[in-house]
């Protein structure tokens, strides 16, 4: 069971790193005026919820599998993403 949790966690973290690089490239394109702000927001907004789900799943899996230290490392990022989503829902 632990091996499955860690393999899934590794794949999820790889996907989140890829997503972060995509965010940086898209924001760099916005800064260089290759794309406008509206298209940048539409490209990035569709990836916010998958990012939230990815971080939350890893944190919950580490909590369920009783890996407390790894859970505590993932908890601030998951909490920040949930907080950011709540603020976005309130402001809409």
Automatic annotation (TrEMBL):
UniProt topology in membrane: Multi-pass membrane protein
GO BP terms, alphabetized: vesicle-mediated transport
Principal place of residence: membrane
Transmembrane segments annotated in the record for this chain: 5-25, 52-75
Pfam families: Cornichon
Superkingdom in the source lineage: Eukaryota
Gene Ontology CC annotation, any one: membrane
SMART domains: Cornichon (SM01398)
Keywords attached to this entry: Membrane, Transmembrane, Transmembrane helix
Keyword Acetylation: no
Compartments where found: Membrane
Family: Belongs to the cornichon family.
Name of the protein: Cornichon family member 4
